[in-house]
Write a structure and sequence with these properties.
The complex is a heterodimer. Helices cover 49% and strands 16% of the residues of chain A. By secondary structure, chain A is α/β, with parallel strands linked by helices. Chain A has 2 domains: 119 residues, Rossmann fold, CATH 3.40.50; 51 residues. In chain A, the strands form 2 sheets. Chain A has a 5-stranded parallel β-sheet, with helices on both faces. In chain A, helix 1 links the parallel strand 1 and strand 2. Chain B has 4 domains: 105 residues, no CATH class; 74 residues, no CATH class; 81 residues, Orthogonal Bundle (Helix Hairpins), CATH 1.10.287; 149 residues, Heat Shock Protein 90, CATH 3.30.565. Helices cover 50% and strands 11% of the residues of chain B. Chain B is built from 15 helices and 9 strands. In chain B, helix 4 crosses helix 5, helix 7 packs across helix 8 and helix 12 crosses helix 14. Chain B is elongated and about 105 Å long. Chains A and B meet through helix 1 and helix 5 of A and helix 10, helix 11 and helix 13 of B.
Chain lengths: 192, 459
């Protein structure tokens, strides 16, 4: 299958047990992943911003900040990043809650390396390419506050606003995406 | 893993294969016994039948009457004609022949069905008296105790029972102390009278007066065993978390190393590092397991010199994950480093701390906040070594402060607490010749203060 964008193999492992992070990092690195580790829930946001992972492996119970909260934040701020929950605590309820909140997978410790690799790979493949592409485009913008686009109600939209709308999947974002799609189709049809 | 709830419902389902029938309904469908009118719960003559004997209503009434007559004049004690023999004879005079043994069986069945027509002859002494509402009599009549004195005695008994010693000094026996306490309240009883009274109450099934001598050790051991098992339950939960993490590391590392070997990539240095990691994690598991083994140990308590700080650390090893996941921090800054050893049983002492930590953990969780703190401090207070365990939980309601060490007293939800945790702590502290008090912190939460005897090496 032709992929317009190669989705990077970048994973952030969040677990308060350093030995677990270390062993999983080794496993994933041998599979060609670029790995960063994070030992508490509080610094996840910061690290995600800097490292820009496509997949996050997340423990639920952590000091300072609960994994469920971290998951919530990730889903709202970076909907294209996939989250694999691996935890030693929690029961069915936790699993259902996490999956409802948009976690890609929920695994219970002890997890085999095969499962870990497989889930991470599946998660990477499930990254929504369009969203990721827009994110890339946004990152490359020289001035995110320049007005780029006017909506049907002639509301001026800057790059930053547009990105926010897209992550929130608001009506403005939908209108924009529709416009992009129609322009793309026109271009293709004209070339034909 | 089997789910106990599923198993339970499964078993229930097989047992209730037909429509649910209560015992009474089952009895009613016995062949040959047809009730002619709705059954009154207090007059179960219809079901008072054995295979050989069936009673009709009149016979049942005769039985009740004779029973009552004998009951009213019955005096339990040595040398008296057995109760059911007397009833049987009286029935025979009324034209109804029933063997004493059959009679006893019938009556016991009626009692089980909730009939109040057949009071237990052993309680005769209490119930038959004309002054039954206000005064309680002993079988020999040597002790009479009006209700307010009875209540005072019961209260004193309970307090004393909790703090009783194995081998009291002369003149400081249980009932001597009780008599002194009664005297303080202005009630004049000799210790023999009190002992008689307690004995009598016990005989009529009053649980407020448990046996003091003999049963003491057994009872204490039973509480201790139950408590130890409960502690093991607490421990098992913690244990799962403590074991899962190292197990995960071992599995991942070993699997990874294996796959690398299969691929033909072997880096000696890296292999060594990984093996060391595996060994270290396996040791961690071994430590936790060994620890549980010592808690599960049964045997004589042995009082020896124990280091407080290390007992606290040992107890905490089982809580690492549980506390971390609840955002509860441990503050050890108040633990003086050069504390002298205290005199205690090391394992029991650990159990004291396990109970207190569990308690603090639950109290903090109850506040609904996602963080908390348990602070340990210990200092040398000349006369004793004092250790304090303070938490930032909900604290203890003032009304409950008096009762928290009572058996089966709990404010936790049903199924969460047995009400025995702090009782056990209390009992253990007494075993160590120590003391324990509880108080609320000014800023919220509670503090438990433990006083230990300094260990004096035997020369």
């Amino acid at each position: 299958m032709h992929r317009p964008i190669e989705i990077a193999k970048r994973v952030l492992i969040v677990d308060d047990d350093q030995d677990i992070c270390q062993s999983w990092a080794e496993v994933l690195e041998s599979d060609g992943w670029e790995v960063q580790r994070c030992y508490d829930g509080e610094s996840v946001a910061e690290q995600v911003e800097a490292f820009d992972p496509t997949v996050v492996v997340l423990d639920l119970r952590m000091p300072k900040r609960d994994g469920v909260d971290v998951l919530d934040d990730l889903r709202s701020s970076r909907p294209w990043t996939k989250v694999v929950i691996i935890t030693g605590h929690g029961g069915e309820d936790d699993a259902i809650k996490c999956l409802n909140q948009g976690a890609f997978a929920y695994l219970r410790k002890v997890v085999s390396n095969h499962d870990l690799r497989e889930k991470c790979e599946l998660a990477r493949q499930a990254v929504p390419e369009t969203l990721l592409a827009f994110h890339k485009w946004y990152e490359a913008l020289p001035d995110p506050d320049r007005v780029l686009y006017e909506t049907a109600s002639s509301q001026a939209v800057t790059g930053r606003q547009l990105m926010e709308e897209i992550t929130k999947q608001s009506p403005i974002a939908r209108e924009f995406l529709e416009r992009v799609a129609s322009v793309a189709i026109e271009l293709v049809v004209k070339r034909l | 893993m089997t789910d106990p709830t599923v198993e339970q419902t499964g078993r229930d389902a097989t047992r209730r294969s037909g429509p649910p029938v209560s015992t009474r309904e089952k009895q009613l469908t016995l062949p040959g016994v047809q009730p002619t009118e709705p059954l009154q719960p207090t007059e179960p003559w219809t079901v008072l039948s054995t295979q050989r004997l069936r009673l009709d209503k009149d016979e049942y009434e005769t039985l009740c009457r004779c029973y009552r007559e004998v009951f009213d004049s019955f005096l339990p004690g040595r040398g008296s004609v057995p109760f059911y023999t007397q009833v049987s004879e009286r029935l025979k005079a009324a034209g109804l022949a029933i063997e004493p043994r059959t009679l006893a069986r019938l009556v016991s069945r009626a009692q089980k069905l909730g009939s109040d027509r057949f009071p237990d002859p052993r309680t005769r002494a209490v119930l038959s008296s004309s002054a039954k509402a206000t005064r309680l009599y002993s079988p020999v009549g040597s002790v009479r105790m009006p209700p307010e004195e009875h209540n005072a005695f019961a209260e004193i008994y309970r307090t004393l029972f909790r703090t009783r010693r194995k081998k009291p000094k002369r003149g400081e026996g249980f009932f001597a102390q009780a008599a002194a306490k009664m005297q303080e309240r202005g009630y004049d009883y000799t210790q023999t009278k009190l002992a008689n009274y307690a004995h009598f109450r016990r005989r009529i099934g009053d649980v407020n007066f448990p046996r003091v001598r003999g049963s003491q050790e057994i009872e204490r051991m039973q509480i201790a065993t139950v408590e130890r098992m409960r502690a093991l339950g607490v421990v098992a939960t913690g244990l799962m978390h403590e074991i899962l993490q190292p197990l995960q590391v071992i599995l991942s590392t070993a699997e990874h190393q294996k796959s690398e070997i299969e691929k033909g990539v072997v880096d000696q240095q890296q292999t060594r590092e990984r093996l060391e990691r595996i060994i270290e994690q396996a040791r961690k598991i071994n430590g936790v397991v060994g620890h549980v083994r010592t808690i599960a140990r049964t045997g004589e308590p042995r009082i020896e010199a124990v280091n407080l700080a290390s007992a606290i650390e040992q107890a905490l090893t089982l809580f690492g994950e549980q506390l971390k996941s609840r955002g509860i921090e441990i503050d050890r800054s108040g633990l003086a480093h050069d504390l002298p050893a205290v005199s205690a049983d090391p394992i029991a002492l650990e159990q004291v701390f396990i109970n207190l930590i569990t308690n603090a953990r639950d109290a903090i969780e109850e506040t609904g906040r996602k963080s908390g703190m348990i602070r340990f401090s210990a200092f040398d207070a000349a006369a004793s070594i004092v250790c304090e365990v303070a938490d930032t939980g909900t604290g203890i309601a003032v009304a409950n402060l008096q009762r928290i060490f009572d058996p089966y007293f709990t404010t936790k939800q049903v199924g969460k607490g047995s009400g025995m945790g702090l009782t056990e702590v209390f009992n253990l502290m007494i075993q160590f010749d120590g003391r324990i008090t509880a108080a609320n912190n000014p800023g919220g939460g509670a503090t438990f203060q433990l006083g230990f005897k300094r260990h004096a090496p035997a020369d």
